[in-house]
Design brief:
The protein is built from 15 helices and 13 strands. It has about 375 residues and is α/β, with parallel strands linked by helices. The chain folds into two domains: about 220 residues, NAD(P)-binding Rossmann-like Domain (Rossmann fold); about 110 residues, Oxidized Rhodanese, domain 1 (3-Layer(aba) Sandwich), CATH 3.40.250.10. It starts with a helix and ends with a helix.
């Protein structure tokens, strides 16, 4: 690479690092990284990779920017609400470092195109929050012969690791089977602090730079666990299993639908985008969630009280009225006067409400509206 004063000035603080220097910088300039997900984890990872001088980035995301994204997805702005995340991320990157080549794919990653997209890339960063996508990325990266960097956030806890580096462990060595549907709360259910996502997304960018340049020791064979409330990192050894690797290569990605929930097979047409003015509205979140904010006039009947789970220690089972019974009584009362009276049930993002509706359908209740995207989706639509 010919001497360019502007190039040297931009990366001077990296060039002066002992053990990094011009050789490592030129490796970054010749690298291509695919980032799947331009959300909470993808935002800081993309910004730091672009700022560091990674030559080419491909951004994959089929979602659009919403108001609820902005507290943690720092690559987007208020002005980009409603626009594709991948395009929004590209535009921000171009203002930060116009010398980076950025390709965007405004769609979700699928098996048909994953290997084609990963071809020619040096590594992939998994910034998704979807189990199916994680298994797909792991398989496609393994088939393409490139490492992938994974991170995950749940509440105040986070994890990060490098998979598929040489003969090192792969994602399936840590997660050989997906968890039961509904057992892992979504970001909307568990909540998330922006700085926690920033810590992990930055760590993912750092691991990418280490892999691309050969400096340091990448986090392969170890899983970093971050406790944000204590401000502590713990590192857990992870072993590679050749049988697992061969199984993934021969069988394809493990199927896992992060949105699949018991009760998702609802009556056709019962997912609703809005709430009728006279609707009976039932909030099945926990009381502390309900107290923070709720749809005006909504009744709070938590899902945790359904199916008899409201029984308290020392109480007789017969003295406890299950949540679905209470809800069914409310619905029956209003429909005694109007059989078509609208009923809308919601939670944070739509999963618990699906389960609640399944319970209610078992009691004979019908025509129950499930608020699309839960109260988070509803609030986003109200703000549009």
């Amino acid at each position: 690479m010919e001497f360019d004063p502007q190039w040297v000035a931009r990366y001077q603080r990296q060039l002066s690092l002992r053990g990094f220097g011009r050789q490592a910088q030129e490796k970054l300039a010749g690298s291509h990284v695919v980032v799947v997900g331009a959300g909470g984890l993808g935002s800081p990872a993309l910004l730091y990779l672009a700022a560091a001088g990674v030559g080419a980035l491909t951004i994959i995301d089929g979602d659009e920017v919403s108001l609820s994204n902005l507290h943690r997805q720092i690559i987007h702005t208020t002005e980009t609400i409603g626009t594709p995340k991948a395009a929004s991320a590209r535009d921000t990157i171009k203002t930060l470092n116009p010398h980076i080549a950025v390709a965007v794919i405004n769609a979700e990653l699928d098996r048909e195109h994953a290997r084609e997209i990963f071809a020619g890339a040096d590594l992939v960063i998994d910034g998704t929050d979807n189990l199916g996508a994680r298994y797909l990325i792991s398989w496609a990266a393994l088939r393409s012969g490139i490492p992938h960097i994974w991170g995950s956030i749940l509440g105040f806890d986070a994890q990060v690791s490098v998979f598929g580096l040489g003969d090192g462990p792969i994602y399936e060595d840590v997660f050989p089977t997906p968890p039961p549907p509904g057992s892992v709360p979504s970001c909307a259910q568990a909540g998330v602090l922006g700085p926690v996502v920033g810590v992990v997304g930055s760590a993912m960018a750092l691991e990418a730079i280490k892999v691309l340049t050969g400096i340091g020791k990448p986090l392969s064979g170890r899983l970093g666990y971050f406790d944000a409330l204590l401000g502590e990192w713990e590192y857990i050894p992870v072993r590679a299993n050749a049988i697992t690797r061969e199984s993934v290569l021969s069988s394809g990605p493990i199927r896992a639908d992060a949105n699949e929930e018991p009760g998702n097979q609802l009556e056709e047409g019962l997912v609703v985008d809005d709430i009728a003015e006279d609707a009976v509205v039932i909030d099945v979140r926990e009381p502390d969630e309900y107290a923070e904010y709720s749809v005006p006039g909504a009744l709070n009947i938590p899902l945790s009280t359904f199916n008899g789970s409201a029984q308290r220690p020392g109480e007789q089972a017969s003295s406890v009225i299950a949540g679905e019974t209470v809800a069914a009584q409310v619905i029956s009362t209003v429909r005694a006067h109007d059989p078509q009276h609208p009923v809308v049930i919601y939670c944070a993002a739509g999963k618990r409400s699906s389960q609640a509706i399944a319970y209610l359908q078992a009691t004979g209740m019908t025509r129950l509206g499930n608020l699309r995207g839960g109260i988070d989706g509803w609030l986003t639509r109200q703000a549009e």
